Amino acid sequence: MSSDSLSGLLGRPVQMRTGGGAKAFLRKVWAVAAKDIRAELRAKEVASTMIVFGLLAVIIFGLAFDLRVPKSAMVVPGILWVIVLFAGILGLHRSFGAEIDRETLPGLLLAPVEPSAIYFGKLASNLLYLFLLEFCMLPLLLVMFDTNLYHPVILLGLFLGTLGYAEVGTFFAALTANTRARESMLPVLLLPVMVPVFMAGVSLTAGILDGRPVSGLTSWLVILAVFDVIFFVAAYWIVDLIWDGI
Length: 246
Prior knowledge:
The protein has 246 residues and is an all-alpha fold. 78% of the residues lie in helices and 0% in strands. The longest helix has 31 residues, at 115-145. Mean pLDDT is 83; it is low at 5-18.
C-alpha cells in the first residue's frame, strides 16, 4: 500500500453506518426487540411478573366487588385499565433498568444503530409484554365478572390505549434509566401524562358495555389515536436529545 493511500485511510474519520433506509432501520429495530425477547425467555422477569400481577389483581378485585357491586359491568372498565396501568409499570421500568443492572447499556449505545431504533426496539418488546398481559386478562375477566370484553370497539380502544401507554412509558423509562430512584420516578412522570388515555379508555369501554351507540363513542377513539400519533412523532425526535444522559 502506498504512503498516500495509507495516510488517506488514517486521516479519514471513523463513521458508524447508521443509514440504509427504512428497511435497514426496521432490521435494527427488530434486532433490539429480539435481543430483549431472548433475554426475557431466559430470565423470565418482566412478562411473567406482569401477567401474574394482572391475574392476581383480577381475582382479588373479583372477590371484593362481587360482594358489594350489584352489577359487575359497572366496575370492569376501571378494573381493566387500572390493572394494565400498574402491571405495565412493573415491566416498563425494566426495559432500560435491566440494561443498567447488567451493565450492558454502554454496549447497546455503542452499537451502530440510531438511538430511535433502540427506542422503537424497546417499544416493540414492551408492547408484546402488554399484549400478552391483556390476552391472559380478558378471559379471566369474563369468568370472574361474567362480562364479555371481546367487542371490536373495546379491543380497538384497548390496542390504541396500550400503544400510547407503551410509547410514553418506554420514553420515560429511557429518561429515568440512569437515576437511582427510577422505580419511583417512572410512575411519578408517567401517570399524569397518561390521564387522557385512561379516561378515554374507561369511557369507551363503559359506553360499549352500557349499550351506547358506537357513533357516540368515536370521539374517544379519536383522542386515543391522536395521542398515539403525537407521542410517536415526539418520541422519535426527542429521544436523540436525551440519549447522552442515559
